[in-house]
Structure formats: structure tokens, C-alpha cells
Structure prediction request, 132 residues.
Amino acid sequence: MGRQLILETTFLIDLEREHHRGRTGPAVAFLEANPEARLYLPFIVAGELAAGIAMRDRARWEAFLAPLYVLPSTADVSWHYGRTYRHLHDAGRLIGANDLWVAATALAYQMSVVTRNVEHFQRVPGLDVERY
Prediction:
């Protein structure tokens, strides 16, 4: 098993669009460059995908998620969420609630977040962020 990586929502949106258009882009290129990686989603990202128009059909949503591992919320994830929220709020650099859950999940499970929104996630102390 290779590296363990958390995929953030923008990655999955780009991946779905690349698949729909039939053209390789940065998301597919990242996957091709990391064939041994084990790919995870925080529970919140699975919910964001289900809320989107492209995945409104449950069977399509489940098929899209099938090769991925969905990480549940735990007490440790919640602790990291609260700690990170307080830090970013006090610093005046707060990010969106869903992105905070993504970051907290990555911190709790000690995994990197794969995103094109690197500057946004780099606000979170101790979070390992990978650009695609």
C-alpha cells in the first residue's frame, strides 16, 4: 500500500468533470502519478458530493465513491475541528466550516489533503497539503 491521501472536494469535482469531458486534466494526472496511493474522503466531502447536481442519483454517487474509503467523524476529528477553529478565528484567518472538517479529519487521521486550494488549507497549523 502506498501513501494515504485525503481528497478534497475540488479534486473530486475536477476528476468528475475530466471524466465527463473525456479529457485528462490535473486530477487524473495526479492519480496516474500516484498509482499506489490509498484514497480517502472525509464524511463531509461525501455529503458535499451527494448535494451536487452531478451526483444527485444515489447509484451514481455510490459508484463514484466505490474506489474510495470514507472516513467517519470521531471524537478526535471533532477535537481537531474545535482546536483549529479557535486558532484560525483568533488569527482572523478562518476558512469555511466544511473545509475545517476536511482539515480536522486529515489531522486526526494523520494524512495529507490533496487540493488545488493549497493557500487556503495551509492556514491550518500542522496540516500536510499537496497540490495537484
